[in-house]
Design a protein that fits this description.
With about 325 residues, this protein is an alpha+beta fold. The chain folds into two domains: about 200 residues, Ribonuclease H-like superfamily/Ribonuclease H (Nucleotidyltransferase, domain 5, 2-Layer Sandwich); about 110 residues, no CATH class. The chain has ten helices and 17 strands. It has a six-stranded mixed sheet with strand order 1-4-3-2-5-6, with helices on both faces. A six-stranded antiparallel sheet has the order 7-8-9-12-11-10. Strands 13, 14, 15, 16 and 17 form a five-stranded antiparallel sheet that branches. α6 packs across α8, α7 packs antiparallel against α8 and α9 packs across α10. It is elongated and about 70 Å long. The two termini are about 45 Å apart.
Length: about 325
Amino acid sequence: MHFVDTHFEEDFYSSEAFNFYFGDARIGVFDIETTGLAPSRSKIVLGGVLTPEADGVRVRQFFSEGAHEETELLDLYTDILDGIDVLFNYNGDRFDIPFVNTRLAAHHRQAAFSECISIDMYRVIRAFSDLRSMLPNLKQKTVENYLGFWNSRKDTISGADSVTLYYEYVASKSPELLNFILLHNCDDLLQLSRVISIFDRLDIHEIMFNIGFPIIAAEYSVLADDIRLSADSLEFSGRYKSLPFDFIVFDEGFRASFDNDAGAFSISIPCLHEKDLIFVDLAAMNADFEILSHDPACASGFLVLKNGRTINHKTVNHLVKLAAKSIMSRFIVQ
């Protein structure tokens, strides 16, 4: 097993909107290198993860010297991934995540990623940007070049080249080949961390409404990944960790249920509707939502969540965060 730990003096992407969702979260960017596309007959040979640090970014890479080391690689790699709340990736929902979990199952290990939110930047760009119609494809390198990061990449090989080089390395143990493979993975991580800045050009509030986001209070956190708004209610549900026991709430003007066995929660906030408006009465809720009275969508204590066909995504997401934190505050006190 070969382990590389590298520090880079560059700032991780940050903005007011981005920090609204992820400022309290443990963030990671991850990418794997494999011997093929089918996890049933291929192996993971390199796992990389980038994390923001106070003075830059840190890249850790776990490289397998041979097929016999895959179990050790997976144990070390997933141990780091399991400590992360939000994992940014590129096409990871379709490739990296299921690949890792298939290989874990092959070694009789528990599946990973159940306690984190995956932000697949390929899916984000495909669904919420115009780049699909502007670029020949949405490969990561194509998007990097469009965003002006072409000079930031040092490696010159493709993922397919990486597979070939790996087999050559296993046979020769050439340090030069090893460096090529590590550089390719490292550059993928660094470049993807820079691609995240595309949020400056997108509606991050709409995106988070659709794919979910973490909500963190002290040592407790929930992952809201299913938000639904109807004329009668705002309902959101998802997964959680760290909360100590089951919990049901009916006395705050909304309903909440936390099922510890399933690691799942759901919260329902009653809505009012009149003509084309869907709104909530903040005074009807026994929780501290004072900050929402300053929201541009709030008038006379009524918070407008939807006007006609337009959902106020930022307002809805803010209400979701505050409702979840109101529940978690009970655990913090205890």
